[in-house]
Amino acid sequence: MSVFSSKELEIGKFGNDEAQRKSQGFRWPGRPITRAAPVTRKFSTTHVRIEQSWLVGAFCILPFFFELRPKQSSNDSKPLTFAKMTETSSSPQSFEIISSLRFDPGLPDAACRHASSYPDPHKSPYYLLAYHQDRLIAAAAHFQWNGALAWLQQDLQSFEEFLDSSIADRSKAWRLRIVTPPVWRVYVDTESTIPSGFTTHKTTARDDYTAARLRAGINSPTDLAEVLVVNPNDEVMEGSITTPYFLRDHMWITPPLSSGGNAGTTRRYALSQGFCLEHTISRDELVDGELCWLSNGVRGFIRGQIITK
């Protein structure tokens, strides 16, 4: 186990009060209740590598990130990359299945921590943990990683206990400061991306997304900017690191999975809560200056503005 240097990460303060949403207009689950709602926390990031029949790495505390990849054998700690795939020969020969989520003991509302569609709500400091587990299971099944699939299909409580073992100090005091939530710049990729299992599922094979970000002039992961990737039919698939939502006819819509984008956890949450509907969005529909929402499993929901010029 190694501990990296401390750094700061802006996170959102979540508000899910239904009465407040109705009285103040539509609010996403991650939209700040006040203008100064997002906070920045000082934290240490810990990297943990757990040796099992399948290698599992965990990165925490904020964001909490874990990955799956095959291991050569029980007596060889060096992981091997996965080569057997159902994709075409042009697919990456070395990749890992990943998911990123927020660990935050201060989540103020159980509705932010779990999906209400589950019959037994699992109150947890891991944001939408059940969705992340399902997402990893779906990816492992798609790529026929049977060892990983068997390990992932444990009950949710055991899964959380495994994640808990990666966090050295859950009682650490945080230093907070209030900041005004920024609006992200949202560009549209000038080239198309071909949908595949690597766009539907989150893996480390991200060359298409990296190329799209570079074409948009996004050179750092800390840039408050996003680029929308489009398929050969000029349909918006998703953002390079987020799910986008657009206001159309007084309703918020997000691209359907049939357009080729990622089955994100916050996307699933927004759909399950009735915050949005699925609908195809073409490149030509996007208007310069229009406001949109973006979401992912670490930052929650973020305001964005389309830039087409």
UniProtKB/TrEMBL annotation:
It comes from the Eukaryota. It holds the Pfam family Aminotran_4. One of its GO terms (molecular function) is catalytic activity. InterPro entries: Aminotrans_IV, Aminotransferase-like, BCAT-like_C, BCAT-like_N. This is Aminodeoxychorismate lyase.
